[in-house]
Amino acid sequence: MSLFGTLNTGASGLGTSSTSMSVIGDNIANINTTGFKGSRASFEDMLPNMIGGNQLGTGSSVAGTQTLFGQGSLSSSSSALDMAISGKGFFQVSDGQQDFYTRDGSMYMDAEGFLVNSSGYHLQGYNAFDGSVTSRISDLQIDTAPTGAKATESIDISAYLPMQDEPTDGWDTYLSDTDTTGGTDVTWDDLDENADNSTSITIYDELGKPHDVVVYFEQVSETEYDYTVVAATSELDPTADADGEGYVTGLISGTLTFDSDGQLESATQSDIATSSWPGTSAIGFEVDFGVDSAGESTDGGSMTMQGEDFSVTGISQDGYAVGELSSVQLDDEGNIVANYSNGEEEILGQVALATFAAEGFLTRAGGNMFAANAASGDPAMGAAGVGGRGSVTGYALEGSNVELEDQFVAMIQSQRGYQANARVISTANDTLQELVNLV
Question: What dotted CATH number matches 154-317?
Fold first, then answer.
């Protein structure tokens, strides 16, 4: 190889070392960029010359740069809309014309409720209607409207009822006296003084308005308890005069029958009267004690007659008032779950993740985003945790996968390579200068 060829070889080495330094500088510059994936330069030798039957190298060139899609570390965030992927996959965002892919889960909600990234591109996923996720991918939008009310349909009661030696007579009189919505002559005091036990609960009408009802229990035989559910007459009839404020109206009554061991055998139920809360349809809830009138088990409560003390171990109902959206959160499957002020939860949508057959060939598009191409293949879209896709973590962000120590080592290597190639050029130059002097 001539000395001029040596100069060209050294110059090619300077070029590859310079490219390597550029890639390292870009990695270090983005060490704090959310979701950034570092790159590395790849080099190859140039086609050699044939001189005297021998192959002599002509230097090196840049074969390309490769994006490294290793997992970055996750850090916690205070924003409910920040999300991070653990494992394979990309978030898909769209500007309305083209789809892009990113590991940057910094998302925001715009004025219309759409989830967007810092560039304003819409996050893609499956929207939900009435809590059910659809199968079509579109712009994810959070419905910030209040959730509707639900009328109470069932009250579940679990309790221990005391077993008395002398059951009360005459309780039927009080039950029959509460059979009208107005003009009843039974008061709260009457029931409180004569009933054995009672417990109260707040239920809701179809408008979401709360109402307090009380369940009274009275043992009427060695194996039976009568119960009745009552409400204030004034709540059912707002036109009742002041003298009626202390009176009650019966809603539901029935009998609980126990076996000799105190286990509930059957529970009957009947409506005392057709009543309705103001502005609503007829009241239609049931009380579940754990078995029905035929003795078949139900999904509700549990009643036992034993001991001497009355004890309620559990009481619940399934109605609720109108609820305002208070917060949202993400689960591992990427579901966007809304939490409402009435304690209810509802799925508003699900984030979709994209995977590629050859993600290493994705094109960097800037803004922490990548674009698909023929080499990477088309995206395979689906839910998190399915088809090899990773899980999604809320209140978290994925950091850059660049390791500063590794970049410093690579920088030193590139620097040494640059210095060595510069020495080759300097030496070839000195030799040429000596040759000129000899001539």
Answer: 2.60.98.20
